Amino acid sequence: MLTDLPNVLTISRIVAIPIVVLFAAWGSPQTDALACLLFILAGVTDYFDGKLARSRHQMSDFGRMFDSIADKLLVGACLMVLAGLGHMPYFSLWPAIVILCREILVSGMREYLAERRASLPVTRLAKWKTGFQMTAIGFLLAGDGTGMLLGMPWLPVALIGAVLLWIAAGLTLITGWDYLTTGLRHVNLS
Predict the structure, then answer these.
(1) Where do the domains of the chain lie?
(2) What is the CATH class of 5-184?
(3) Cα 58 to Cα 51: distance, rounded to the nearest angstrom
(4) Which of 3, 51, 71, 110 is 20–30 Å from 176 (CA)?
(5) How confident is the model at residue 74 (pLDDT cuts 50, 70, 90)?
(6) How far apart are CA 72 and CA 107, in angstroms?
């Protein structure tokens, strides 16, 4: 079970977190590029672990639980290291806060609803949110130094990351509201 490829991919995403954080904290254009590359690879495993689990009929409780945890740990750790290092340009700390708050809200609701045998399925818009969010974090990890490293000093890598993070935050608010209203239907308010 733990050695099934989908679960190995999920675990690899968790193992990648301290390495991405270390590369980002190192602070050179080369290590920023490596942090971005490793983050992208970790993000790709998120796509493939579920797809492989379904196609190989290797879906497991471990995978269902840790897939979501790995995603939230990866995103949360990267947003925190970016904020801690002061790499959140163009007021992008605010959308990062919105994203983290929504993740905590949805996780809490899913836990509560699981006790009531209700689910909070992932919506198509939430998948778009994740795509924008992951792309934004990749650009923010890369930073402007990576543009220079690639011979494109004119490329506003950090600005692109910040804009994408603001878009992700907008989608985060919409999907968070949708999830909240769906979840509240299962709550007895009396």
Answers:
(1) 5-184
(2) mainly alpha
(3) 10
(4) 51
(5) very high
(6) 9
Contact 64, 133 (CB under 8 A): no
pTM: 0.91
> What are the structure tokens assigned to 161, written together?
């990351």
Closest CA to 134 of 13, 51, 5: 13
In tens, the pLDDT along 19-47 reads: 999 999 998 999 999 999 999 999 999 88
Say how far apart CA 54 and CA 60 lie, in whole Å.
Answer: 10
Structure tokens at 119: 């689910």
- Residue 14: phi and psi, rounded to 5, are -70, -40
Residue-wise DSSP of the chain: -TTSHHHHHHHHHHHHHHHHHHHHHH-SHHHHHHHHHHHHHHHHHHHHHHHHHHHTT---HHHHHHHHHHHHHHHHHHHHHHHHTT---TTTHHHHHHHHHHHHHHHHHHHHHHHTT---PPPHHHHHHHHHHHHHHHHHHHHHHHHHHTT-TT--HHHHHHHHHHHHHHHHHHHHHHHHHHHHTT----
Instruction: Say what the pLDDT of residue 186 is.
Output: 82
Average pLDDT over residues 6-15: 92
Of 65, 89, 67, 87, residue with least CA distance to 20:
87
* pLDDT, greater one: 179 or 132: 132
Q: Positive or negative, the Cα torsion across 132, 105, 20, 148?
A: positive
